[in-house]
């Protein structure tokens, strides 16, 4: 019963999200102005009379779906994302939000934990840790494997930690790579973190499961609905659904293994008492993934997730994370004399400086240069900003 209720929440919130996108597009085409989110939320009462099945779902979840669609349009107009797309019921990931009237009942001795959601009731849950504070939002997610996950946003009423002052002696540079996932250079030395290649280790298993899935029955029929629009109807066999879930569980295992590895690495870096500031490079990850020779290897490292996890963990303990300019030549610049080697290719992992004669490991030299970023003047940092290449290419001594 609870499973069917959650499926109903997925469908109704998805319908409200798509309805908002459709009406917002029509409003902009006709008037040239964006639709107000509050006006749509007020009209939800009339929509419930027209579509009675919306009454079976928590009203706050429906309002949250409209606000999420409005936020998607705001991000689009501010040029942070592409135009929002309609959600599909065939999507492998479904979710809905409950912003109010949610409770988390932690387990006592001999009992199980529960999460209480409006219109659904108490649901048995495996709770990983206890927390104190006010529950703000509960997000329920159903993954492609069929498992349900709940994310609880809590306000602990704790003030933000004041960040430490930036000191070069207590600064470390982090260079991201592929074979060597991360190279960390600090005052105490150099540490190289190898790439565990979770996706590569499961590649043979994924190939077998994908071949089995391709042999299963899947029929796609195109029909016209009442409005004259073409709609796809997909019919799959029971074996297709079984193999699809096996494939989804394999991808889920890879994703969780990578996340656990990133959590362990970032936890160790954040708790290093000798470092209060980390410097990373501003990588064009979207552009790197478009390279078909590097896309799988770059995605397997999880550089974006590593940066995001490191950022919020450092902020929680009052440490600093600095992003160096995108056009800062960290790999091509000699960390000893500051000379730049223009002809350095991606295959060269070791190179010698033509001016001072020092031999450098490519990743270690990049991490050392990133560490020296904090010593550059503001004008030099501006030259290697996000929007353009450096205006001058002379050597900058360290």
Number of domains: 4
What is the fold named in CATH at topology level of the largest domain? Nucleotidyltransferase, domain 5
Find the structural class using helix and strand composition: alpha+beta
Amount of beta strand: 15-25%
> What is the terminal-to-terminal distance?
67 Å
Order of helices and strands: HHHHEEEEEEEEEHHEEHEHHHEEEHH
Number of strands: 15
By CATH, the architecture of the largest domain is named 2-Layer Sandwich
CATH class membership of the largest domain: Alpha Beta
Major sheet characteristics: 5 strands, mixed
Tally of helical segments: 12
Q: What is the mean pLDDT?
A: 87
List keywords for this structure.
disordered C terminus; Nucleotidyltransferase, domain 5; three-stranded antiparallel β-sheet; 12 helices
Question: What this model shows, in words?
Answer:
It holds the Pfam family HTH_OrfB_IS605. InterPro entries: Cas12f1-like_TNB, Transposase, Transposase_put_HTH. Residues 2-33 form the Transposase putative helix-turn-helix domain. The chain is α+β, with helices and mostly antiparallel strands. It contains 12 helices and 15 strands. The strands form 5 sheets. The protein has a 5-stranded mixed β-sheet with strand order 9-8-7-12-13. Strand 3 (113-117) and strand 4 form a beta hairpin. Helix 1 crosses helix 4 and helix 7 packs across helix 10. The longest helix is centred in the middle third of the chain and has 33 residues, at 238-270.
């Amino acid at each position: 019963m609870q499973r069917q209720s959650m499926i109903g929440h997925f469908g109704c919130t998805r319908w409200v999200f798509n309805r908002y996108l459709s009406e917002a597009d029509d409003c902009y085409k006709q008037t040239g102005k964006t639709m107000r989110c509050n006006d749509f939320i007020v009209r939800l009462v009339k929509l419930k009379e027209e579509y009675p099945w919306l009454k079976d779902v928590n009203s706050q979840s429906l309002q949250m779906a409209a606000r999420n669609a409005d936020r998607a349009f705001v991000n689009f107009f501010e040029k942070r994302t592409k135009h929002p797309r309609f959600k599909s019921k065939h999507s492998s990931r479904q979710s809905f939000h409950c912003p109010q009237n949610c409770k988390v009942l932690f387990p006592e001795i001999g009992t199980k934990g529960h999460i209480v959601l409006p219109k659904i009731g108490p649901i048995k849950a495996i709770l990983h840790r206890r927390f104190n504070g006010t529950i703000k939002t509960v997000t329920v997610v159903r993954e492609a494997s069929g498992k349900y996950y709940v994310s609880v946003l809590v306000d602990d009423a704790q003030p933000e930690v004041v960040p430490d002052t930036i000191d070069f002696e207590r600064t470390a540079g982090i260079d991201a790579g592929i074979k060597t996932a991360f190279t960390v250079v600090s005052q105490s030395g150099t540490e190289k973190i190898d790439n565990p290649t979770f996706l590569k280790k499961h590649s043979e298993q994924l190939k077998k499961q994908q071949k089995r899935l391709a042999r299963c029955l899947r029929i796609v029929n195109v029909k016209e609905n009442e409005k004259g629009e073409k709609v796809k109807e997909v019919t799959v066999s029971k074996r297709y659904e079984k193999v699809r879930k096996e494939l989804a569980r394999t991808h889920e295992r890879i994703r969780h293994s990578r996340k656990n590895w990133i959590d362990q690495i970032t936890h160790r870096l954040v708790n290093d008492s000798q470092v209060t500031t980390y410097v990373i490079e501003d990588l064009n990850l979207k552009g790197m993934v478009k390279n078909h020779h590097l896309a799988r290897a770059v995605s397997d490292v999880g550089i974006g997730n590593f940066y995001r996890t490191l950022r919020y963990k450092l902020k929680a303990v009052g440490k600093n994370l600095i992003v160096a300019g995108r056009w800062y030549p960290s790999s091509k610049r000699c960390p000893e004399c500051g000379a730049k080697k223009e002809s350095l290719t991606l295959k060269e992992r070791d190179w010698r400086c033509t001016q001072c004669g020092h031999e450098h490991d490519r990743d270690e030299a990049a991490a050392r240069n990133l560490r020296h970023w904090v010593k550059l003047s503001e004008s030099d940092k501006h030259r290697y900003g996000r929007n353009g290449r450096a205006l001058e290419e002379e050597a900058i001594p360290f």
